[in-house]
Structures are given as C-alpha cells and as structure tokens.
Amino acid sequence: MFLSSSGQIDDKEFDIPQVDTPPTLESILSELEDEEEPFVLEDTCMVNTENIDAHSCDTSSLASSDSGDPAFLRRKKRTVDLNATAHGSVLRHTLLKGISAQIVSAAVILLCVRVFQTVSGVIAVGTSHGLALVFDTNQALRLCLGTRTTGCEFGAVSALSINHDCSRLLCGFAKGQITMWDLANGKLLRTITDAHPPGTAILHVKFTDDPTLAVCNDSGGSVYELAFRRVMGMRSCDSRCLFSGSKGEVCCIDPLRAPPDLRDHPITQYSLLAMASLTKILVIGLKPSLKVWMTFPYSKSDPSTVPQLSWQFVPVQKASNPVLAFCKGDTVHFLLVKKEESGTIHVIKQRQLQLSCDIISLSWINSRTLVLVDSHEKLQVVDRPSQEVLETLDLEQVQLVYSSRHFKSLATGGNVSQALALVGEKACYQSVSAYGGQIIYLGTKSAHIMALRNWRERIDCFLKQEHFVEALSLAWSVHEGSAKAVVGLFGDPLKRKAVVSDKMLEILFQFAEHTLKKCPEQGKIQVMEQHFQEVLPVLVDYCLLLQRSDLLFSQLYTRLLENTVAKSVFLESLESYIVADRLGHLPPHIMRDLLDHYHSSGMMDSLERCVVHLDVTSLDIHQVVKVCWENQLYDAMIYVFNRGMNDYITPMEVSSHLFTLYEDVVMGNKLLVYISCCLAGRAYPLGDIPEDLVVQVKNQVFEFLIRLHSAESSEDEQLFPFIHTLLHFDTREFLNVLAMTFEDFKNDKQALEYQQRIVDILLQVMVDNPDFTPSQVGGLFTFLARQLAKPDNTLFVNRKLFDQVLEFLCCPDDDSRHAERQQVLLELLQVGGVVQFNEERLLTLAEKAEFFQICEFLYEKKHLYDRIIDCYLNDPLRKGGVFSYIHNLLSMPGYSPEEKLRVRHKALLCFTELVTFDPCRSADLLLFHFAEDVQQIISGLHDDQLLFHFLSSLLEPREALPPEALLPVEQQLHELQLDLLCRFAPQHLLIFLQTSQHYTLEHAIQLTEKYGCSEASAYLLEIKGDVQGAFGVLLEVIIYLLECLQSNLWSVTSSMLWFPLLDTMMASQKQVKELRATHTSEVLKELTMKLLNCMSSFISLPAIIQQILQDPVYGKGKLAEIQGLILGMLDTFTYEQTLLETTTSLLNHDLHWSLAHLRAAVTKGLHPRQDVCNICLQQYKRRQDSAEEIIVFSCGHLYHLQCLQQKDGADGFVPQHKHQWRCYKCSSSHGGRGGASSEAKRGRSTSLAQTCVTSMHHDSAAVAHGRKVFVETTLDPQQEQSWDQIRSLYRGPSRVIDYTPYPALRLPVVFIYITKRVLLVYSF
Predict the structure, then answer these.
(1) Counting Cβ atoms within 10 Å, is residue 286 exposed (0-12), middle (13-18) or buried (19+)?
(2) 385 — phi, psi (to 5°)?
(3) Is 708 exposed, middle or buried (0-12, 13-18, 19+ CB in 10 A)?
(4) Do 1042 and 1057 touch, CB atoms closer than 8 A?
(5) What is the rounded distance in angstroms from the CA atom of residue 1058 to the CA atom of residue 588?
(6) Helix (H, G, I), strand (E, B), or coil: what is residue 155?
(7) Running DSSP on this structure, what letter comes out for residue 1192?
(8) Taking a C-beta distance cutoff of 8 angstroms, is the pair 748, 790 a contact?
(9) In this predicted model, what pLDDT tens digit does every residue of 801-821 receive, in sequence order?
(10) Is the dihedral of CA 1244, 1245, 1248, 1249 positive or negative?
(11) d(CA 209, CA 270)
C-alpha cells in the first residue's frame, strides 16, 4: 500500500477508533516538561572555532524483538547518576513523546518497532510487519510506507538509510530484499531482490555521498555495492560484491559521508568505506576503482564483543580531515586519513582510548566528543583530546532494542555462523542514530534524544541545585576555553569572553544574595563566620579573575555592609589576594575599613603583610605611619617611607636609634637586611628600587654609614657611631653585607672610593679597640683577606696590618673558625695576590696551625708529593681523599719516576694506617699499584680482625682489572682467608668455599674440622667424593641439636623431633636397596643404628619399634628387612642393661661400706675422763632426785648443761641453737673465748661423736616402751661435706638418701646405749 501525497492513513489497517474530529499526532501528546524541547535538529557551534558540526552515519536502525524478552528485561536496577561532576550535566535527555506514543501503538498492532533512522528534518522507523513510518521534526507522522502484504513477503524491516537531501529512503528486509522510496510523495521507486545471495537478511544498508551509490551488508557477512541507474525511464540496480563472507564475516559497515561544507574535501572523491569483520578493520576506496587502503587487526578480546565504526571530520591544525573511530571490546582506536599536497594519502594511528567495560555503541556527537554505551547500558560522554569522561548516564530505563534476530537470520532459516550469532546478542546498531550534534536511542516502548546542552543550560543546572561554586567553576572554564563539550557560544574569543563574564557576574550577585539570606540569624559568631568564610573568598576570587574589582568594592561590598560578620570576613579574606599581588590597589574607604578592622582585632602582622604589598597611593600615609609607629611595624614603616616619600635614610636613622636604646635583636636584623637591600638595588621588604634611584640610594647609604656623628650626638658619642653600632650588634653579618655589596663594585670609581673609605674606618674602629673581642677582630681580618684575594682587588692595606692578618689566620691557639681561616689563606695563595710571603715561615706556621691544605699547596709547589700523603692522613676531613690522590699520582703522566717511587715508598710505609681507615679502598689500591708487595703488606697487619676485613675486600671478585693486578700468592691468601673466616665469620664460609677455587681440599677440610664448621666440612667432603662422611657429619650435627633440646622438651615433643629423622633414614635405605648399592646401604645402616642408639636414651624401645613397623617402607615388607635394625637395638639394650646393673651393684657396695664405717664411728661409746663437771667441778650427779642433763664431748670432758649455758652466756656468746655447744676446756686451752667469733677456729672441738647425755629419768618412758628416740641435730661443715660425698656416690632411687643436707636435718637414732644411770643418744 502506498500513501497518497496528502499523507492520509488507513484507519482500518491501524485499527484506529472513529472519533468526531480526527486528532492530529500533536493532540495525543502531553505538554512538554521544563527540561524537554521540541525535536529540532539544528547545527551547533562550538566555543573553539576549529570544531565543526557533527554528522552521524546515515544508517542507524533498530533491532529485533528479542530485546523485549522478559529474561532480558529482568536486569538489576541501577541508580541514576546525579551528575555531580565538575563538568555538570553535559547531555540534555529528552523523551520523544510523539514518536514514543506511536511506537507503543505500533507495538500493540505490529508487535514491535524495528528500525530507526534520522536525518535533518526526517525520522524513519521500521516495523516488524515490513512498514516504514516517516515523521517530521515536530514528531508528526508524515508517511507510512509499505503494506502488510509486503511485510508478509519481505519480512521485518531490518535496515534503513536516507540520502543527504532527504529525498530517498532505502529499506532492507529480514528476508533479503531492498526497496527504495521517494520521500516526497511516498512512491516506491525500486524493489531489489538480486543484490546478494538469497537466504540472508540485510543487516546494514547505507547511502554514500554519491546518491547513485549505496552499500549493504547481509547476515552472511558479505558486503555489496549498489549502483542505481536510470536508462530510458527504467530504473535498475547493479550489484557488486566488495567483500565475501567466506573470508571473514563483516558485521558493521560505515561509508564516509562529508557534511555540506566539506563536500569538496579531497578525500571524498574516493568514497571511502570502513568495514568491521570479526577479526579486523578494513578501509577501502570505491572510486575511482576498488582499492584496499588499510587493514587493522583487533587486539585480543571477548568473541561476544560487538565491533563498532564511526567516521567524523575533525579539525587538525588548519584543516579538517576524516577520523575513523573503531573498537571491539574496551579499547577505542582512532585512524586519521590525510592527503598531502603531493597527492599521497596517509592513514595515521592516533592515541587510543582505554575504558573499563566493553562497548556496544559508539557515536560522534561533535568533532571533539564521543558518546559511548557499554555492555551495562551505561552511557558515557568522553572528551577525545583529554580522554576524560565528562558524564555518565544510565540507559537501563530506555530498554534498548538489540538485533539478535536479524544477526541469526531467523526469517530465512538461521543459516549463519555461530560467531556472528554470538555477536548479535549485544548488537544494537539499528537502535542508535546520530546527526547534527544529537543522538536518538530507540527502546522497546519509547524513543529518547540526547543532545549537548549549551553552556548556559549547564550552568543553570548547577544554579537550580544551588551549587553556586560549581556553576562559577564551570563558567570560568568556559571563559578560559578549557571547558569540554561546549555548545552555544558564537563570535570571536573576545565577544565570547564578554558574554560569559556577564553571566558570571550575574551568578556572583545571586550567590551573595543567597548567602545573606541563608545566614543563621541567631547562634554563635563562629558559625556565622564559617558560613561566610565558605562564600566570600569565592566572590573575591572570581571578581579579581574577571578584573571587576570595581563591582567587588562597590555593589558587592555595599550589600555585605548590612552584616557586620560578613564585613569582617570579607576584609580578612582580602589578605591572601593582597599578599599574592593579585590585589594591589584598594579604594580609600576599603583601605580605611581594613586598617580599622585589623587594628581593632589586633591582627598587626596581617596588617603589615598587606601594607607592604599595596600600592602606596591607596594608603593614607599619616594614618598608616601612626599605626606602624604605635605597633612597631618596622617593615611597613620602611615601605611607606621608601615608596611614599623616596626617603631611604630616615628608616635607618630611626632604626639605629631604637636599636641603641632597646637593643632589639629583631630591629638589628631588619636594619642589616635593609642596608643590604639598599646597597644591592633591591627594595625592602620586596621588589626593586626604581632604576633612576639605585645609584642615589647607594651613595646615601654609604654617606650614612661613614658619618662621624649622628644628628643628635652627645659628647661621649664615639666616632662613626652607625658602623660602631652595627659591628657591635653582629660583626660577622655586617661584614657579610659589605662583602656582598663589594661584589658589585667593578668600574664604579665613586663606589670604589667608598669601599676603601669603609675599610679604613673598620680598621680604625676595631684594631686595638678593647671593646671588640679577638673573635670579632679576627672576623674583620678574614673579611679583609677575602677582599685582598680577589683578582681585581683595589684595596690598599698597610703591610703591618697584612702581617697581622697572616699571624691571626695561622694562630695555632685559636680553634674558632679553623676551616674558614684556612680557606681564606688558601684563596690568598691560589690567586697569588701576596708575593711577599716567606714560604719557609708560612710552611712552619701552617704546620703549627694544622692547615693541611696550605701544607699540601706548598708541598706541591716544591714537588714533595710524598709529604702530601701525610697531609691527607692527618686531616680528618680529607682523610678519605688519600686513596684517590695516590691512585691518580701513580696512574697519571706528568710525574717523574723518582717522584712516583717516593710516593710508592711512602704509601707502603703508611699502608697499615690506610687499611685501618678503609680496608675496601686499600684493597683496590693494592690491586692496581701494589700487587707485588702483597706479602709485605700482609705481614705488617698484626690485627687478625683487620686482616680478615682487608682480605675479604682484596679477594672479592672484580671486573675489568688490569693484568698487573694479578696477585702472585693468591692460593696462600685464600687459605689464610679461609682460616680467618672459620674464626670470625663462619656464616660466610660456605659461600667462600663455593666461589673460590684457590685452596687445597685437604687443608680446607683440616681447618673446618679444627674450628668445628660442620656444614663447610660436609660440603668439602662431598666435593672430595666422601658422600658418606659428609652425611655423617651433618647427621652428628642434627643429633647433637636434638640432644641439646631434649632436656627442655616433653616425651611427645621428643618423638616429633626424632621420628621424622628416623623416617628419612629408613626411606633412604629403601631407595638405595632398590638401586642395589651395597656399600652405600651398609653405610646407611651404620648411621641408622647410630641414630637409634641416640634415640633410645630419650624414647622408649617399644615406641621406636612401633614406629619402624608402622613405616610404609617396612610395614609391608618382610621381617627380615628390619631384622638387622631390631637385633642391633636389642643387643644395644642388653649391653646397656648389663652395664647399668653392674654400675648399680658397685655403687651400692661402696655406699654400704661408707655407711658401715660411718655408723661404727658414731656408735662408739664415750668414756669420760672424770665424773665431775669441768666448770663447777662437782659430780655430774649432784642430787639423786634431780633430772639434770649433762653433755659429754668426744674429747672426754663432761659438763652440766646449766653450767655450760651460764659460761657461754657470760662470755657474750648466745648459741643460736640449743644443741650447738663447744668444749669449754679445749677451747680455753687454745686461747679462745667461747664466743661466736672463734667458731670457725674451734670447729674441731665438736665432732660427729658429740653426744647429748640426759638423765635416765628424762626420757625413761620412751626407753621403757622401746620407742626410737629422735634428736634434731645440725651437721658441721665437715659432716655436710661427707654427706655430699655419700650422696654423690649413687644417684639411684635409694631410701637412705631421701634427706636434704640443709641445716636442720632430722635423722633417726641409729644406736641407743644405756648405762646404769645415764642414757647416751647417738645420732648422725
């Protein structure tokens, strides 16, 4: 069915209900919202004049109804971006309500909308029933092309294309046909059925710039050229295959189409066509003949990713050239096509764009901006030059239509490859159309247009959200031309800046009003201050950027005066801009308010910083000077005097007077800096003195310094008071100021006269003046020496004073500034300014003063190079330079053999000292120059530790050594180093053995065994071939470590330590047995037996046997395999058991013999020599009825206990224990007094036979009942020693040795002897 020219629609076909008044399309649309505008495709002008309008590729169509599948729509909801980026809202998103309403209606009638195409003035939509709906820019339906019959025959519309003048429409169908329509009257012009092989769907059909030429792409992956002809009124179409799908399926094509103003571009004559296959990109030229220009393979990517292509003319320098953007995956590549004047065409690869997600749609919205859609349906606006993402939107609510049905060619039987069908799952080529700076996205139920907002809209979006700071930032970037994706600015740059400036001023006033309204009316002052501190600096900043300080200090400041807090914050915010020299002039009323506020707030430092940066013409000099004097703002005062009155002397006079009165250190330092600046032509505290005043100011300062007296001088004032004052304040710094000033005096005759005059005054003031310390006078001489050392020196100094300078510099008793004095004298010698020196005297003075650099200078002049070595060695600051000096002198030409020989001899004499200082550098020096003297040097090193470090450095591997660096006795040195390593660094011994080959194996083994370096011994034995010996050494180390740890470990832990070692040994035996190595197997058995013997001391025999039987090596074998191990363990056990029993028997016999002799000694009866007490001389039994205790000693003397207690108490000795007694008579006969001091001497007076004898009545009950009587006794030292000897004889579980031999032993009575009337109790 064809539409008439009136554009009427058949109501029955579309099932539209009858109404009284047929409505227009607009009548069914709702009102547009604030953000929505009528759909108008218009050219957009960029801020940058090189940008041109963007034009989309012609063919962009919708996809199949697969995107409406419920499983596809059940995606996770994503939150919408709030566009809070610095670029603001870049895209304007508008719903095309008129077209969306028609789509919904078509979806009900025709199941689903299929294809979408837009060109300026026309929008075309294809349906699944083969119809094409054409809308105008007001979204009114103009034409409905095709009929249901056509739809049944051709299938769904799968591709659309409109030519550049909107006169023709190409429709591609799912079953492979192509039709051409006249958009002026809706007439069908051509039906093409043989353009490509049947059975494949049309995926793309696109016009080129030539209206008689188009290209198409089918589901077989082939590309064809369609040439339209009209001969004798008959329309025809010739088809030519450009690319066969058998060579690689093409799934996307895009011909280069130039905008109207670039139709004459030299590239357009070639009719370029870009094709994207599954593996590469191809660019071909259709004219004048078919030619492949370029192929570009993709990088590795997911097979399901969709290739994308898009052409755009981009300004490059002064010309616009086409750029092809393409991608497959997450990387966008750019190719620039350029034709040189010579006719050569270049395809240049440009910087690629890397993203984080796979891309399913790529479109240019203008020459600098790309709009991408990723696989998560996130839209990203990207600025190509900076590769910055400007904005991100979520398109999930759009519900994009995908082309999977056509890529699978379901309408023709689905005869496509799996690879192409997989790509079709994410293909949305026909759902996106871009033209004239706008992009339209087609969803299952709606159509959406995305267009770049103009710059005002973007700013207004921020203002609606009350984001004034962001709005100002965006506006300023537009003003400076740094903003991205700017639309809507016209004219030259100055006019554009003026328009943006007006907008920014408008925002500033709105911001100020908004801030005053939002200010909290009540609350703390700090809260109000914080409120204004966030706003007012922004206002000041942008007013200054726009150079509109007049508005800042008039309208804005007047508005802020209503709030006192706002006024204060505003004035304080000016400081940073004044200090940064962005605000140099203030109106008088602002300056007055600023002074008053800072003065009243006590912010004097801030006030001073502001004053010295402001233009002096904006200052009230009287007011400022008054405030500066009152608050001691010296910098500000100097600034006002200098700049306001060109007076550079008054500040010095006043400052000098104040310093003399108050001795203010700050004032003194400022005065020195001020004088230095004036003499150097710089202004204080910043800037420069005007060029016409520089010489005048210098002369004025010199005249001020050399004044004889001050203006208000007194009678006792010294001559030259200003120089005198500055010298007393800081002599060194004042002289430094003069030194820096004298540097600039060259050809200025008057300045040189001032220089000589000042030097004469300094000498007159300081020499022989007791007011100055020797250190200050020395500073003057150092200053003079530096001046005299200059090559262009013009100063004259008296010879005597110069000798005085020399004597001072070389004074050995003055340690202050030693290095500086030496440097000064060295400079004098180097420039040769003083030739009257007596070199011998100078050398003597330098040696006394320890000026080693001076000595070096003089020695070098006399060619005494060997003496210079001593200068280096004695100078602690330059001692490390002796190595370089010796090396250079011996290596470089220009020195005689005799001189080198003396240096070599001197170096050998000092080599021990060199090694002590730096062994490493000494070793380098030896290798290069003293290799043949190595034995002599080694013999001179008596410290083994030092020798070890030296040899370590000497024998370290080096590269690029000269042939003479080979050591003659290298093997001896390595063996010596081996011995030292064993002693001082055994941890490095193994590395040395592995890297060095200069030692004998036997000698090395002897050394490692001597010093117990087991690991090194094992390594050497292995090298020797004695693997068993090496293994045995390591096994002994392991066993030793286990035995050392065993005493602190429990039995469970013991098995955890020993059993893994046992398992390893038994596993090794099994492996060796399989290899049939008999000798090795026997050695392993011996080592295993050794291990078992050591284990048996800590682990029980059953546990060891159980472990052996459980081992997988022996558990499944025969008992004969482990018979040797078990029998060996049993033999060892039998031997050890026999040894233990024999030892126990011997110990028991010895113990019994010792105890028997001891018992015989202590049970021997005592016979008193007499029956009377040796103290009271009475019978020991004085009364028959009394129970009186007596004590009998082994010497035979007898005492009453009471008498003995009284006697010892009288002698001043109180026994600490009631049974500790001594024989009184024996002790007295040796001249002692029974006191405690003589206890050690009389230790023999009490013996093991000492007995306590009591009356028979005292313990007769115990005796009568036959009970053992226990007596507590304390052993003397001899007895304790005997007791320890007995205990040490046997360590087994004996019942006899269960008592601790410490002071209060309780021992059983071993013998009771009863006489007629006396009970004798013996104990031990």
Answers:
(1) buried
(2) -60, -40
(3) exposed
(4) yes
(5) 97
(6) coil
(7) E
(8) no
(9) 767 767 777 877 766 778 877
(10) positive
(11) 10
Using only C-alpha atoms, the chain has a radius of gyration, in whole angstroms, of: 57
Q: To which residue do tokens 């090596």 refer?
A: 1113
- In angstroms, the CA 73 to CA 71 distance is 6
| Separation of alpha carbons 976 and 965, rounded Å | 19
Q: How far apart are CA 633 and CA 624, in angstroms?
A: 10
Q: Is 917 helix (H, G, I), strand (E, B) or coil?
A: helix
Given the structure tokens 């290069």, which residue do they identify?
928
| Per-residue CA distances from 267 to 167, 381, 841, 993, 1036 (Å) | 25, 28, 91, 75, 88
Average pLDDT value for the chain: 77
Q: In this structure, are strands 213-218 and 202-207 parallel, antiparallel, or unpaired?
A: antiparallel
- Check if the beta carbon of residue 59 is closer than 8 Å to that of residue 117: yes
CA distances from 359 to 66, 238, 334, 353, 363 (A): 20, 36, 15, 12, 11
What residues form DSSP beta bridges with 1320?
A: 1253, 1313
Largest CA distance in the chain: 179
Q: Specify the amino acid at residue 900.
A: K
- Under a CB-based contact definition with an 8 Å cutoff, are residues 541 and 588 in contact? no
The SS3 of residue 219 is coil
1070-1098 pLDDT, tens digit each = 666 666 666 666 666 777 777 777 776 66
Compute the distance between CA of residue 283 and CA of residue 300 in angstroms, rounded to an integer. 20
- 1174 DSSP assignment: T
Mutual orientation of helices 818-831 and 852-861 as an angle, nearest 10°?
20
Distances (CA, A) of 1156 to 578, 1160, 1288: 113, 6, 17
For residues 392 and 485, give the distance between their C-alpha atoms in angstroms, rounded to a whole number. 14
Helix (H) or strand (E) holding 347: strand 345-354
Q: List phi, psi (to 5°) of 180.
A: -120, 135
Which residue has better confidence, 694 or 1221?
A: 694
Helices 970-984 and 944-954 pack at an angle, to 10 degrees, of: 130
Sheet holding 280-285, edge to edge: 250-255, 272-277, 280-285, 291-297
Q: What HEC string does 14-32 produce?
A: HCCCCCCCCCCCHHHCCCC
Alpha helices, DSSP H only, in 87-231? Answer: 97-110, 148-154
User: In one letter, which amino acid is 879?
Assistant: K
CA distance 277 to 272: 16
Q: Which residues contact 1090 (CB under 8 A, 6 or more apart)?
A: 1035, 1039
My answer on whether omega of the bond before 791 falls inside 30° of 0, hence cis, is no
Q: How far is CA 1248 from CA 734, 1194, 1282, 1297, 1315, in A?
A: 97, 8, 11, 19, 21
User: Using one digit for the tens of pLDDT, what is the confidence trace for 1150-1176?
Assistant: 888 888 888 877 777 777 877 888 888
Nearest residue to 173 (alpha-carbon basis) of 405, 442, 501, 433: 405
Question: What's the CA gap between 378 and 363, in Å, rounded?
Answer: 14
Model pTM greater than 0.70?
no
Q: How far apart are CA 765 and CA 719, in angstroms?
A: 8
Judged by DSSP in three states, 254 sits in strand
**Does the N-terminal peptide bond of residue 1277 adopt cis geometry, omega within 30 degrees of 0?**
no
**How confident is the model at residue 541, as a pLDDT?**
92
Both structure tokens of 383: 């600025």
Helix (H) or strand (E) holding 310: strand 308-316
Torsional class of 526: left (φ above 0), alpha (ψ -120 to 50), beta (otherwise): alpha
91 and 381 in contact (C-beta within 8 Å)? yes
- Measured distance CA(934)–CA(967) in Å, rounded: 8
d(CA 605, CA 941): 67
CA distance 481 to 492: 12
Q: What does the pLDDT average to over 34-49?
A: 33
Contact predicate 689/697, CB 8 Å = yes
- With cut-offs at 50, 70 and 90, classify the pLDDT of residue 1273: very low
